[in-house]
Amino acid sequence: MPSRPPADAEPPLLVACALGIERFALRGGQRAAAAAGGRLDLVVLRTGMGPQAAERALAGALGEGARTQRSPVVASGFCAGLAPGMRPGDVVVAEATRDHRPGVPDVTCRDNGPLLRALRERGLTVHSGLLRGSDHVVRGAERAELHAAGAVAVDMESAATLRAAQLAGGRPVAAVRVVVDAPEHELVRIGTVRGGISAFKVLRSVLPVFYEWHRSLLLPWR
């Protein structure tokens, strides 16, 4: 019978995404990072689509006795950009996430500095700010309303993912999303396929940055 890891062993990094295509991209990045010498333990969790599915999946992954019970959590995958000028393939690093339900406290991402630096050093276009949660696909006028209220991007799982992680106990959390559509590049328009391919390639490329972030959390001064 295999022995359990010691209680003080460093937990793996948990990266949560909603869709199969997102997990496929992230796992491709995981293989590339491993081939390049990446050594940190990482679990890619597919939660399913929507905030309720994300909450259920995180509750299970962070439950008593789970290998990822104490893991830092990154919410990742695709998102809709809200600010004019955003393009498919841009990256959004949340300063905070806000639930779609009124009255739920925001979750602040306090440890995102290393993520921002590492992504920009890779030459990516990176936006930082409020990442808004939703329980449906956001389009048109609603997109403009969310941006006017201070959000830079929106998706259906990040806020629920980080809220569930916070409720399961204190831990570092982050949300890193890749824009797949934006005000001038909505999914229903011509060019969607090209934008989707760009976003997929960028999502695959950011996984090594998560390793660097996790490593920064393990440094003695942390």
Q: Which segments are poorly predicted (pLDDT under 50) over 5 or more consecutive residues?
A: 1-6, 188-192
Instruction: Give Rg in angstroms.
Output: 17 Å
Structural class: alpha/beta
**Tally of separate helices:** 6
Overall 3D shape: globular
The fraction of residues assigned to DSSP E strands is 15-25%
Helical proportion, percent range = 25-40%
Report the end-to-end length measured between terminal Cα atoms.
Answer: 35 Å
Mean pLDDT: 87
Number of strand segments: 8
Question: Would you write up a description of this structure?
Answer:
- The protein has helices at 20-35, 51-61, 113-121, 140-148, 158-167, 192-218, and strands at 13-17, 42-46, 73-81, 91-98, 107-108, 126-133, 151-155, 173-181.
- It is an alpha/beta fold and 222 residues long.
- A 5-stranded mixed beta barrel has the order 3-7-6-4-8, surrounded by 5 helices.
- The radius of gyration is 17 Å and the shape is globular.
- Mean pLDDT is 87; it is low at 1-6 and 188-192.
